[in-house]
Amino acid sequence: MKKLIAKRPVLYLGRMYDKGDTLPANDQKMVTAWLNAKSAAWDGQEAEESRQEAQEGAGQADGSQDSQNRNGGQEAQENGQEAGMVEGHLDPDQLATMRKADLEKLADQMGVDISGAKNNKERAELIAAAPVQPPANETGGAR
Questions:
Q1: How many CB atoms lie within 10 A of CB 122?
Q2: Phi then psi for 120, rounded to 5 degrees?
Q3: How far apart are CA 119 and CA 96, in angstroms?
Q4: Tens of pLDDT along 59-103?
Q5: Model-level pTM?
Q6: For 11-49, what is each residue's pLDDT tens digit?
Q7: pLDDT on residue 15
Q8: What is the 3-class SS of the chain, one letter each residue?
Q9: Burial grade of 18 (CB within 10 A; 0-12, 13-18, 19 or more)
């Protein structure tokens, strides 16, 4: 049976999944985000098929990428915006160089629970596992 395996710590719906844990694969949008961010990978013989299914399913779950391109693509170009939001993760190595107070403030702003972390490295890993979206520029598009 195919399994979605975490490649780094992932916080999802209030639960922390460690590296190697099986992630829930019922939310196609999150599955696609984890795969694109290389936070997770499919395990098993059907890995390639599952990856394609997840990408196709995510396109249908959020209004179908094809129909979005047909219907909203031109409008987004006219507004100077991209049709989809970009999602990524902060760099844990860079976060680990920050002071404890700054990490706690950032975690609070992001809604990430780091109370169980024993040191800055663990705090940084927990924060980096949370998905982030880049801020929009003046025209509304992400950079």
A1: 16
A2: -65, -35
A3: 9
A4: 554 454 444 444 444 444 444 444 456 778 888 888 989 999 999
A5: 0.39
A6: 888 788 998 999 988 888 888 888 888 889 988 644 555
A7: 84
A8: CCEEEECCCEEECCEEECCCCEECCCCHHHHHHHHHCCCEEEECCCHHHHHHHHHHHHHHHCCCHHHHHHHCHHHHHHHCCCCCCCCECCCHHHHCCCCHHHHHHHHHHHCCCCCCCCCHHHHHHHHHHCCECCCECCCCCEC
A9: exposed
Residue type, 63: G
Location of structure tokens 């972390």: 117
Our CA angle for 97, 101, 105, nearest 5°, is 100
